[in-house]
Specification:
five-stranded antiparallel β-sheet; 11 strands; four-stranded antiparallel β-sheet; alpha+beta; 166 residues
């Protein structure tokens, strides 16, 4: 199989997984009593230039996360969870697990037990304003993420990306 064909096939698989994650999110949203945002206990910890966010999610919860703007380390400290991502497909994670989440990652997950999940983010301004941090760390839609990545690219790379897409 040629390299280009393999890349195209992988892109199709990722697109299918993204569509599935968005469909799960849509189905959850349609349920009476669906909750959004920070619906589970969060613990916020700060250090010089670092923001640590820990969430505890009860057993039997199906949810989707937001889209992260930057690569960041994260740790499953407790529990077992089934996770769907564009890149990884469906995986069962059993604590303890450490990993680097790539920028642009959005997850759908189902907790098989109570889960404690910790993420670590840069906090260059040392703010402790959670709304400000979330603005820096995540977006809600892939369109917002695409807009963010376009702004992050140097001007000449934006032009090259635009030309290569046509």
């Amino acid at each position: 199989m040629s390299k280009d064909l393999a890349k195209t096939e992988q892109d199709l698989i990722k697109a299918d997984r993204r569509a599935l994650i968005l469909q799960i999110e849509k189905e959850i949203s349609a349920q009476e009593g669906a909750v959004f945002g920070n619906a589970f206990p969060l613990k916020h910890t700060f250090s010089s230039g670092i923001y640590v966010r820990e969430i505890t999610i009860p057993q039997g919860i199906l949810l989707t996360g937001r889209i992260h703007k930057h690569d960041h380390p994260n740790f499953l400290l407790k529990g077992t969870v089934r996770v769907l991502t564009e890149d990884g497909g469906i995986e069962t994670l059993i604590a303890p697990v450490s990993m680097i989440s790539a920028k642009g990652t959005k997850r759908a997950l189902y907790t098989l037990t109570e889960v404690v999940w910790t993420t670590i983010h840069l906090n260059p301004t040392n703010t402790q304003d959670i709304d400000e941090l979330e603005e820096e760390i995540v977006v809600d839609t892939y369109e917002q993420y695409d807009e963010f990545t376009r702004k992050e690219l140097p001007w000449y790379k934006r032009i090259i990306k635009t030309i290569s897409m046509r």
